[in-house]
Structures are given as structure tokens and as C-alpha cells.
Records
---
Amino acid sequence: MRRLHSVSEISAMLSERAEALARDLFPAGRRSGPEWRVGSLAGEPGQSLAIRIQGDKRGVWADFAGGGKGDALDLVAQARFGGNLVEGLRWARGWLGLEAGPLPEGRAPAPPPKRERQEDPERAQKAARALWMGARPIEGSPVAAYLDGRGVGLGALGRVPRVLRYRPDAWCSERNIRAPAMVAGIVRRARIVGAHRTFLAPGPAGRWTKAPIASAKKVLGSMRGGFIPLHRGVSGKPFAEAPEDDVLAIAEGIEDALTIALTMPEWRVVAAVSVGNMAELVLPEQFQDLVFLWDRDGDNPSARQARERAVARFMNEGRSVREQRPPEGFKDFNQWHMAELADAAAPRRGMA
């Protein structure tokens, strides 16, 4: 009788052969140290998509431009079948020799329309602005419930970050449906140039979580050089009127930025969307005191180089640059914050 392998077993077997898998899926890619690098899930040459092919984390991948990440099986599903995990499993079983017969053909995602982006970048930015402006306030919405579940709810923050909004019908290309999402405006030179979407899904007890898809966070429009302004700090003034002694804290993601706004309310806080965008940020000159809040990415060379570029750039501009990370054992500041909340809520031993 043919043995049936679990999804986790198949993913593990793919990871064991991560280099061969990466070469088969992305023949236009190139090896870079412990990684296979390619432009995107469409397979064009480039560096934005990194796949670990050596070490304990082999098979893990991240798209630093598009924001997607996952394991080896997610990679197959995204690269060949538009995120369809069932078809990805069929292909993986055939590729691993667990099933006889030809592999399902699938189809790689179409590369981004480079010509359209070069000729009319304003078109995508206009669509992003329309998406954000057509969204609702987050009070009483699934976004508010999601933030509550991440320990940075409106009650804890004491104010509503107006840059965050809610759309019940944001288009999710990965699932080919309209779905609820938190929508954040990405600002560059006081103008919204992009919209960051975090797709949400209902959970138990009225909670909301990130949607269980390979890439729950996506950007429409432009993010290069832009940021999501989430907290005004002690001055409380808009960016254009910020005093020179304001400390500007820069986190990678929204949840981390809100965590810092909660724990260090005197700082002005923004989210840069990705570590690769840190060195590109367009910051007003009056912000001379910067604090970079890094995730712990292990030995990821791409993330390390991105951090080094950001620090070097702003130090060369004569700004003060500080760096902070969460304690060892925590991926980011929000994870640390959630652990602290759980510890505080746990019953103490020996207490009546």
C-alpha cells in the first residue's frame, strides 16, 4: 500500500533538496553564498527573492520586494500555481518521486509589467491613494480587533493612528478574491504614494489574525523611500512642523512600530515597510536623531547588508544613528511585547 506523506513531511523533503528545487524552479537565478537569488516569483534574473539552500533554514524564502515568504512547499505553490497549495502538493510529490506520472505543468506568475511602471508610475500611485481614501476608520472594525490581538489595540495606544484604515473588500491577487484588510498609507514627501495591505481572517472568540496565506502583506503603488507615519511623539505635531529635537524611531513593520509607540511614547515612530527600504527613506532634515529598530533575522546576509547600508547612509549625512533589537529569542519587538503581556497575565505560583 502506498504511504501517504503529510504536508509537513513533504515540505521537509523539499527543504532537504533546496538547491536542486531552487534551480529547477528558477533556472535564471544565481547562487549567492547560502542563498539562491532571483528577481521574483516570476523567475526573472535579479536579487529580490532569496531562497536558503544551505544550513538549518534551507528551503525558507523571502521576497524582499513583494513581501512574500514561506517554506519550500509555499515556494512551489507560489512559483508554479499562483498560491494553490493543492496543486503545489501534487507537483511536489511528483518531483520527489513519491508519485508516478508527469508533473503538473503549472505556470509561473507573470513578471511585473515593467514597461507600464516605467511609463506611468503615477497610475499605480493613484490606485493606491484611491484604495486608502476609500477605506473606513478602524474603530470597531476587524483592524481594531487584529491590533488588540497583537497587544497594540486602540485602548492601549490611547489614540487612533489615522493612517491606518479598514477595507472589507481589498483585492487579494493570491486568492483571487476580495477580502478584509488593514490598509496603511505610505507617505513620501507628504504625499501618499503607496498602500500597504495586511489581509485579515476571523479567528476564535471574535479575534482577527493575519490571513493564512503565503503573503498576507502586500504593497500597491510605490514604497521606495516612503514610510507609514504612526505616532507623533512628545511634540504631537505633524511631520512638516516637527521640532528638531524630535527622536525618530524607524521600525520595519506596522506592529513593531505600534509596539514602540506604546512603550516609548515620547518618540515619533514610523514603519519603513521592509528592511530593504530603510536606506532609501526620504526624511526631512530636521530629524537628526534616528533610532533603527531591527528584527532579528539570524544570519540572513541580505538583511544584514540592508541594515549596514541604512546606518552608513544616514551617518554620512551627519545624523545621529542608534540601533536597537529585541532580546535574544524574539524575532521582533511585537513578539517580545506579546510574551511580556502573556507573562504578566499568567497566574503567579504560590499566590492565593
---
Amino acid sequence: MNINFIKQDKQLIVEITEEIDHHVAEKIRRKVDDEITRYMPRKTIFDFSRVTFMDSAGIGMLIGRYKMMRLIGGSLEIVNAGSTVSRILEMSGINKIIPIEKMAM
């Protein structure tokens, strides 16, 4: 699995470099949960610049991480989602609870 974690200034940046389906979403969930628990960031940023496909399992994974970050007093953000993934995020309504930015900060 291709996930890169960048930790800086109490932010955890999660770079995902593959399609997100049911099997991959579960692996991502476990790895991200471990990093959040270990690092306790104030903000977790999912960088989707290299994600070309995501199904409903990816939406569920994001909502779960959103809830986890809220429990520890932090926030979650999505950046660099391409047009296909952006459409899925908008259709799911996730953009109403999780900020989606065009470019990483």
C-alpha cells in the first residue's frame, strides 16, 4: 500500500497514491488511525492528488477519520482531489462537513 505521512507543526498530511476501494480503505483506516493516535495532530490533511478513483468505502473511511479527529479536538481537511474524486465527494455530501481545498497549504 502506498501511503506517505508527513508530520509538521501539529499537522498530519496523509498522501494516498492509489485507488480507494473496500480493501484499500480498511488498510488506510488502520494506518491513519495508528498515526493519529501516535502523533495526536491538531489537523489531518488527506492529499488526494494521486487518487483517481474512490468508492463508498473511501467515503466511510473519511467520515470515520473526521469523527476521530473531532474526538481529540482536531480537524480534517481534503486537498488536491481531482475532478472524478471531487464529484464523488460532492455527491456524497461530505463537502458539507469536511473542507475540500484545491491546493495543499
---
Amino acid sequence: MTQPQELVEQALAESGADGCVAIVSEHSETNLRWAGNSLTTNGQMRSRSVTVISTFDGADGTSAGVVTRSVTNSEELSDLVRASERAGRDAGPADDAAPLIENYEHGDDWSADPAETSVEVFEQFAPALGAAFEKWKRADRLLYGFAEHQLTSYFLGTSTGLRRRFDQPDGRIEINGKSGDLTRSAWSGAHSRDYTDVDIAALTDALDTRLDWAGKRIDLPAGRYETILPPTAMADFMIYSYWTGSARDAEEGRNVFSRTGGATRIGEELSKLPLTLRSNPSEPGLQCPPFDVVTESEGGLQSVFDNGAAVGATDWINEGTLANLVRTRAWAAKTDSQPRPFVGNLILESTASGGKSIEQMIADTERGLLLTCLWYIREVDPQTLLLTGLTRVGVYLIENGTVQGAVNNFRFNESPVDLLGRISEVGRTEPTMSREWSDYFRRTAMPAVRVPDFNMSTVSQAS
């Protein structure tokens, strides 16, 4: 196959547009799947996609044609370039148009071969998983799940002379533990760059404990409960709030961060606790591209015109106060502001010293719920960011510092932004993975938190 760098150069050379961006993504993936304490399948695959963005300047503004295809040779690439040009000529002026990024200094090794993963990434993980299978067989319990590892190399070039590349490793583990009679179930998941940091024994032991808790069933009515949300549940909420954090939507009055008169809530205190929500492309264990890679414009969050723009560390909330919203270059120019690019990771932490483990938080609870798993989260009201969703295989009653048993499931109604203002305790921040959004956004670090009045709006029959 033609090297990705060659495809980028060919696309730019063949382009007849006023401006052009070419992005080649080389993707490799390997995976393991298991059911009933036995491996069922493993596999490995490779793929390539090429995106060509053709821009045309006109009297009424600049248009863009964006086409993405699987490309293996020069002829297919030529067809892709022509398709992108046709799309650009047929499109109307783009409201997110901005000049393409000019070349700047960076340390990327443009000439290096694409990175590739292989089944060897599971060299430590697989034996540990096998040991867990044996332990669970002896206990008459069952493990189901999968582990996947992906490695994507991005090669990005512009007609303005910029050349950037980045290798993104990305791993996901999801495990379901079940009792031998299949009446009890629990879920756990994790993100990893290379599987050397995955403690499969700890993950499965936690599931084992939850199955023990579920040996007793407790029915509770709907209502507001003191609730401990573990890191994975906080990731569910914070990711969604991040996705809605568009400065443009806020200034046009369309999201929870709006104020009347075209103002935003930047500078407003969202929490009395010293909570900081931030992103950093170089965050250890959560590294992501330090430049924009955008194959489709998305509202006020990302623009194809910003491809290649340098991405740095940003505090979205600083010690409880809203500090920044995502702002594309085009909207920054219109509002005489600084661009704030979307970043591919998210960290929530308290700047106060300490930070209890979730076990310590449970031990300090007189009466409340431990809510380990959310799913089917949907937006109800964008003005307040009210979300609704269901609990699933993982609500437990705590009394006098001890988990008493599993509780029926609920439908909840909560706003992540409102939730920030009601948190009464923040635990230790640790890497985690959202269950609901793990297909789209995995690189997170969150704390467990205590909320004195989490809204379980109705009882759910979900299991």
C-alpha cells in the first residue's frame, strides 16, 4: 500500500481548490472476547481512511467540501480529491470558515512509519485473565466481556505547508460478572493505553464483591437520596457537560452556560468546592493529539478549518468557577476572543489536599446509595442541561458504613452543572472510563463524589 505521507502529498498536489487539507488515518486493532469464563474469539484488523477538505473563496464567503473514504492507491485518491472539490463548489459559504493553519514549529517525526498494535499488547493481561477465569469457575460465577486495543496514526497536511502526525493508542476493557444461576450481575470497565497498567484481579474482585452484595435484594421508592457516584458515573456526567460547552451556543443563548443579552456564565461560581475540570493533551496516561484533527465540523465545538491548530492545556472550570468554553477560531474572530480548542481528554479534581478512596467514603456513610452504573442517558432540557437516564446492575444501599444489599433500579433526572453545586464531598481522582460514552470518549480521570440529594425520580424495571 502507498505510504500515508505520500497520499497526503499527492492529495495536496492534485488539489485545484483555493485551500486543501488532507488527513490520513492508519488504524490497527486487536481484541479478545470471552464468555462463561472462556475465551471465545480474538482478532486483528487494519484499515485506512483518507479525508480531503477542499475550500473555495467566493464573494459571499468560503465554502468547504469534506469527503472521507477508504483509499489504498493513487487512482482512488484522485477520485477522492475530485469528489471533495465538487462538494466544495456545490456548498454554500461556511459559517465556521477561517484561514487554514500556517506552518509552525513542532517536533513531529513526519517521515516515521505508522504505528501498529498486535496481540502482543495482551502479553501480561491474558494470563491474568486466565487466572481470573479459574478463580470464578471455582466460585460458580461467570465472567463475560472483551478487551480491545487500537492504534491510530494521524497524518495531516495543508496547502499552507503544515505537516503534523500523531500516534494514538487506545484500549478498552469491559467485564460483566454473573452468578452461576444468572440472577445477579455487575459491570466494570477501564481504559488503558497499553494494558501494562490493567489490574484484572482488582477489576474482577470488585465485581465479585458486588455480586456478594446483590445476594440481598432491597426495594426502595423513588426519591432524593444521599448518593455516592464513583469515577465512572462522574465521567458519564462530565463528558456530556463538556460536549455542550460551546462558547457559540452559550453566546447565542442555546445552552446551560448562557446568560441573557448574549453573555455567558464564564466567571460564575458553579461549585463552592475547589473543583477543577481541565484538559491537557500531554496528561500522563491520557495523552491525545496536541493539534486539531477534524473530519467533520460539529456545531460550535470543532471546525474542519481548524485542522492542525495547536491544542494546549485548558481549565474549563477552575476551583469551582467556570473559566472557559470551547471556542473555534472562526467564532473567536467574530467575538474578539481567544480560540479554545476541544481537547480529547477530561480530568476532574479537587485542589484541596487529601481525597478519600471510595471505600473510605462508604465507611463514612450513615445511610445512602452507591450508584455504580448509568446507562441510556438522554438530554431533556438544554437550557439547564437536565439529563435523564437509568441505573443498571449496580445500585446498593449503605447503612452505618456497610453495604447492605442491592436496590431496585431507578430512572434519574439530574443536571451535571447543577450537580457540581450540590456535591458535598470529593474523593480521590483516578483514571476511569464512562460506560455510556466509551464508544466516543474514553480518556478521563474522575473522583468519586457524594451528593446529598441525588434525584431518583421513578422506580425502573430495568435489570
---
Amino acid sequence: MSYTEARVLAGGLVHIPIVIGIFWLFQNFILQRTSAKTSSPTKAPSESKKTDSKSSTESSAPTKQASKPVHADVPVNTYKPKTPFLGKVLENYSLLKKGAIGRVNHITFDLSGSDPALKYIEGQSIGIIPEGEDAKGKPHKLRLYSIASTRHGDNMAGKTVSLCVRQLQYEKDGETINGVCSSYLCDIPKGAKVKITGPVGKEMLLPSDQDANIIMLATGTGIAPMRAYLRRMFDPKERKKNNWDFKGKAWLFMGAPKSANLLYDNDFQEYKSNFPDNFRYTKAISREEKNSKGGRMYIQDKVLEYADELFTLIENPKTYIYLCGLKGMEPGIDEALTTVASAKGLNWVELRQKLKKAKRWNVETY
């Protein structure tokens, strides 16, 4: 390399730091301008938005406190099959009148000795493990039963739970077979200890809205959760004790084979008398009434009979529907509602899915 080339190269190298410095200053200037544009103008609205949000929350707090949820905390599986709670039978009596078909009992268990406390809310179930062994010599598995009492229990002391149990009976090869657990419960004497598990279930819980409308469709012992709902809504002692004052409309459709098989009928008649603007009670007695076609009257026939009124309620976003009873009731009710929906230009299957997604269509069948 010649001297001249070396000087040129050296001169060029000398200018490199200067160029880098100028580039750095220019880049820093651009970044500061960009930061000023992107942060300063939006900072005030952002803070203002937070302030508005906080103000809104504070102003709405009294409203939220005034309407406390019915089931803020849902207890689940406090007692499991391997470690059940032994509850003592306090009472066990028949719910049927003379001339009824079958056998249905109201059974109450003492929970006062449970530690941790066996708490539950309306719409849940408990498991019962019957004594004895199955045909293979193994302990019987638990059976689930819908709870028929409110969280306060029938005596309002908050330390009992009640069930509504029908003895299962069916014919097989000319022989009458009795259900294992249902027979065990219907026959169990006062003072006996029973293995209890649970509670379980979140499907059949009441909404927290005090102004909600509740449509209940029940057959047989499917009345159990409905009995708990209605006691909570309309029993004077419950209303006094609850921090939840039901003001909406409740409509119970109850199906039974005979009038003598109507469960808790006297209580429901009393609620109807005391709260005529809030409670409606519709019965379908299959062996005593005829439907419009001359056949037996079932609950789905009553749904068709009051279709317009029902759909007016269903179209209200504050309306919740509950089905409980034998699984065979579902197709008939779906068919009835499909017919009614079609007449209104609606697709019942799609509507039912929307109701279910919104937790407004709740089913517990067996």
C-alpha cells in the first residue's frame, strides 16, 4: 500500500466514529419523538379510563351487595365413598295416600356429627351406600339421590338432609325384583346409621336473581329438588331466614299416576293459596285424566295445553327451566316443545341448546 492510500484510509477511519455518533444522535432524537407521540397523548385517556372504571365499580357496589347469590360457594364431595359420613336416621315415613301405587318415603338424616360439616345447597344430591354385599361378594356401590330439603333442613337447624325415595320394583322372569338401595332406605328404622357421601352436582342450582322465573317439570320422585326450591321460595320460616327474597314467578308441572301419588301436594297447595301471584301449580294425573286425544294425561300434554304462556316465559331471559324424574319424560316434553316452537317458526333443538348454554335449561333424569 502507498503512503497516499494509507492517509486516505486513515482519514476514512477517523471519520467513522463521527458518523456513528451522528447516527446515534439522530436515532435517539427519532426515538424520543416517537415515544412522545405514542405515550403522552394516550396516557391521560388511559388514566381517565381507569378512573371511570373504578368510579363505576364503586357506584355499583351497593347494588351487588343488595342481591347476594343463592349459591356463592358450592360444596362438593366433602365425603367420598372411601370415607363416608355415618348419618343417623331421624325419621322415615310414607308420602303416599291410600290407594297409591308403589312405595315412596320421606327420609331425614342427622348431619350434626359431621366434621367437616356436610353442607349442601338446593339442587344437589348425596350418595347412599347400602349395607351388605352384591352377588360377587363386594360392598354395594353408592346410589345418588336428589336432596329434597333446603340447606337449612326440614327443621331449619341446618344439620339435617332429607330424601324422597321410591322403592324400585320390576318383574324379571316372573319374579318381582326389589331395588337394593331404595328398599334398604324405605325399610331402614329410626336411629340406624347410614353411609352418606357428597354432596355432588351443579346442574340443578337455582339462579341468584330474585326476580327470576322458574319453570319446573317433575314426575314421581323427581319432585325432590323442586320441593327444596319451593320451600326456599315460599315457606314462611325459610323466607324469614334467607337473605334471598324470591319475587319472580314459579310454575310447577307435576306428573303422577294417581292423585294419591302426588308428593308434598298439601305444601304446594298452601304455597299456591298464600302466593297466588308468584306460584302456579299444574298437575297431570295419567290414570285419572284424559288428554285432548282421549289418551292418558301426561306432563307433556300439559306443556302443550299451556304452550303459549310457557313460550312467553321462555322468551324472557330471566326464565330458567328444570326437569327432573324418569328419563322417559324427556322425549315427550321435547316433542311437545318442538311442536309449539314450530308453530312459532322456531327450531326447538337450536333454542334448547341456547338455553342450556345460558344455564337456563337444566335436566336431571334417571
